[in-house]
Each structure stands twice: as C-alpha cells, then as structure tokens.
Amino acid sequence: MFEKLDSVVDKYNELTRVVADPEVIANQAVWQKHMKEMGEMEPIVEKYKEYRSAREELEFAKDILENESDEEMRDMAKAEVSEQEDNIEKISGELKVLLIPKDPNDERNVILEVRAGTGGDEAALFGGDLLRMYTRYAERHRWKVEVMDMNETGIGGVKEAEVLIKGKGAYSRLKYESGVHRVQRVPETEASGRIHTSAATIAVLPEVDDVEVHIDPGDVKVDVYRASGNGGQCVNTTDSAVRLTHLPTGLVVTCQDEKSQIKNREKAMKVLKSRLYDKMQREQADKIAAERKDQIGSGDRSERIRTYNFPQGRVSDHRIGLTLYKLEAILDGDLDEIIDALTTDDQAKKMNDF
Prior knowledge:
By secondary structure, this protein is of the alpha+beta class.
C-alpha cells in the first residue's frame, strides 16, 4: 500500500511542476486535464501527509518512553503512544478507502428507468411511488429531474418511465438502486383486506457522452407516431413521438415527452447510447468477476434487492440485511441512510479485494 502511496505522491509532485509550465498553461485542454487529475489525487496526498506526521509523532513519543527517566514525562509519552497508534489505525483505514479504484461513472448524470412488474395496477401504482421517491431524493440533493418518457395508468400509476437526473455525483449515489423492488400492502381495491405482493424494476444508467458510444445510423430503425395520453387520448396532432430500435441488439427506446420530433429523437438517442454503454459495462464486468454473484452495484435486475412492507412500516434491503422502520420517510425521498450503508458495504468488499 505504501509503495502505491509513494507513487501517487511522486505523480502529484510531477503534475504540480507540469501545470506551472507556461506551454501547458497555454493549452487549456491539457492544463484542465492535469488539474482534474491532481484534484483526484489531492485527498490521498493530504491524508498520506497526515499519516506520516502521525508516524513521526509516534516515534518521538516512543523515543521519550525508552530514554526518559522522569515518570511524569513517561506517563505523557505513554498516553501519546496510545493516541497516535489509534490515530494511525484510523488514518490507515481512510487511506485504504481513498486508494480503492474510483468508478469512472460516479460523477455522471443518471438515466433512471422504472418498469412496473408483477401485480397489474398495484405494480403500476408502486412504480409511481418509486418514481416520486427518487424525484424527491433528487430534490433533496438539488439535482434537476427531466422526464424523458412516461406511460401512466388512468389511476395514477406508472407502467414505464424514464427520467434524466442531472447533478454532481448522481450516479455514485443512485447506482445501488438497480434491481427488483417489492411492495407488500393492501390495495385500495382489495375488499377483503388481504396483503398483496407486487414488484417494480429500477434501472440506473450513467449518462454517456457521444464520443464514448458510436452508433451506426444504419443499425437504428426509426419510427415516428403521435404521442398519446391516458386511455389513448391524443395530446399531439403531429407525429412527434419517436421509437428507436437498435437492430444488432434489439434494444428499443421511445420518447414522446417533447412536442418536437427532433428533440424526442435526441432524447431517445441519449437513452439508447446509455443502455448500450451499460450493456458493454455489464458484459465486461461478467468476464472480470463472474463468480461474484452478490456484488453490490452490479445492477443485477433479476434479483429482489428491497422490500417495502406497509403493514409493518418497514423497508428491508436484502443485500446487506438492513431493515428500517421509517417507510413513509423513505418513500418521501429520505434514502441517504440506506445508500450510505450500501456504499460502506461496497467499499468494505473492495477493500478486501484490494
């Protein structure tokens, strides 16, 4: 670990010299790239300085303890040794976390997809609950939410929805939400009061740049049609809605949120590129870590990740065995406690690998 830390410090010092070079400063693109790299290294460099300072303090206290005959000074040195040993252990753990390879997508915006699963109208109503939950979570973090596509039911449910969530670090917080979410509650239409179980699937995709995913125009079939509202009622008199089909993979994306066909096509293409990027990442991850079936953040949508139980007022995340009795608050967007726990668990697994 310390060889790695020394190499990071050497690289940081070298970049410090590079960014002061007038020729580099004149090339803003290169200068900004180096400054970003330094910004990513700086927390590690500062924490390592803190570690080395604590080591020096520890050695100084040990030296006093070994060579000092005055009992009062020895007692002070003993206390200092104990304090610095605890401090070094704490800093070492923080350094390990900082050295964990960063997810390159963490700072990206997010395309969040909601799909109602088993349960009919009740599943669609739950899909609407989840969409509102993530919208309110985004609002708490002052992120911007932009609806890209929405297929609602007549009773306020959501069969399918795609939203773009724009904000610094959105993907780093929401990436653990991919998977099957299950709800247990008594539907309003249930006369006997029986508890029903329904499900909805959440997919979290990082928004990608055009340069990262190339799509051959000949591989995309484009269909245009009239946008419609609840019950098929037309809300547009022109063929503004767009459906894109990526022929090599069979991926289909629709967008009817905008009145302009061009804008809908741009939005649909953005979603298609993010889905293709996500597909490529999954295939690569499967090759690298096929044996790690329960990997947090893998976005395995075939497994149930969380249950929302209304009669008991609880939410249980099955990946980490966390249960919280604050269902109303969570559905109102208070997700940080769950996401913090998932992040910590993910870091612990990566630290073990490291």
